[in-house]
């Protein structure tokens, strides 16, 4: 503390230490937030199956869906953005557990409140529903909304639509 | 900067940064925006940099009283007792 440089160093690094502590406190302050604040998923269901085809030995289905969800409760002061995605899951004889992301969207905390409520009809998938093999026909597919909370400080954590509110549909037995 | 000044300077920036940081954190928590925490903390650090880094006169109010010099090699002078300045 006897020269300007030592004091400059002390002030700057003490300041950074305090900022680190404030950041940790911010992360700790919202532990348990999801217990009382869950996004409301009003609807996530198939709207129209557009096609199911075989491409070079691999099955691919294209479809559109309706999505009504209010993501506002997921936001709090330590959230930077929320990554929302629609997951299709189904079983085949080869693979008992398949999960495929069909669509996603980033909602930032700075977006207007209207952007945090997703109310869309007939959304075409961003990514096709592709099987590892050619076993997609006749399968029962479940659509579920999932999301990642990306915080300003602290750990990323996930959320998902309650299993009992998800919707399912069955793919046709023939290509179309 | 004397020893008392160094102690004062260190305590000053300690309390200023913690105070501004805490107030900003509480304010940001209730207004649901972490940027308030950062701005408040920045103000605290800026004030600390101005107040505590330069060698202001307030930090030199307790100059160190050194002992008198040890007598020279010729030994003409006995070691003098402490004189109060």
UniProtKB/TrEMBL annotation, chain A:
Keyword Transmembrane: yes
GO annotations of cellular component type: endoplasmic reticulum membrane
Cellular location(s): Endoplasmic reticulum membrane
Entry annotated with the keyword Glycosyltransferase: no
Listed Pfam families: SPC22
Key words of the record: Endoplasmic reticulum, Membrane, Signal-anchor, Transmembrane, Transmembrane helix
Record's bilayer topology term: Single-pass type II membrane protein
TM region(s), chain numbering: 6-28
InterPro entries the record matches: SPC3
Family to which the UniProt record says this protein belongs: Belongs to the SPCS3 family.
Protein name (database record): Signal peptidase complex subunit 3
Organism: Cyclotella cryptica
Native organism taxonomy: Eukaryota, Sar, Stramenopiles, Ochrophyta, Bacillariophyta
TrEMBL record, chain B:
Main location: endoplasmic reticulum
Domain of life: Eukaryota
Membrane listed as a keyword: yes
UniProt key word Membrane: yes
Compartments where located: Endoplasmic reticulum membrane
Pfam family, any one: SPC12
Bilayer topology: Multi-pass membrane protein
Database matches in InterPro entries: Spc1/SPCS1 (IPR009542)
Entry's transmembrane regions: 12-30, 36-56
Keyword annotations: Endoplasmic reticulum, Membrane, Transmembrane, Transmembrane helix
Family named by the database record: Belongs to the SPCS1 family.
Cited function: Component of the signal peptidase complex (SPC) which catalyzes the cleavage of N-terminal signal sequences from nascent proteins as they are translocated into the lumen of the endoplasmic reticulum. Dispensable for SPC enzymatic activity.
Name assigned to this protein: Signal peptidase complex subunit 1
Organism: Cyclotella cryptica
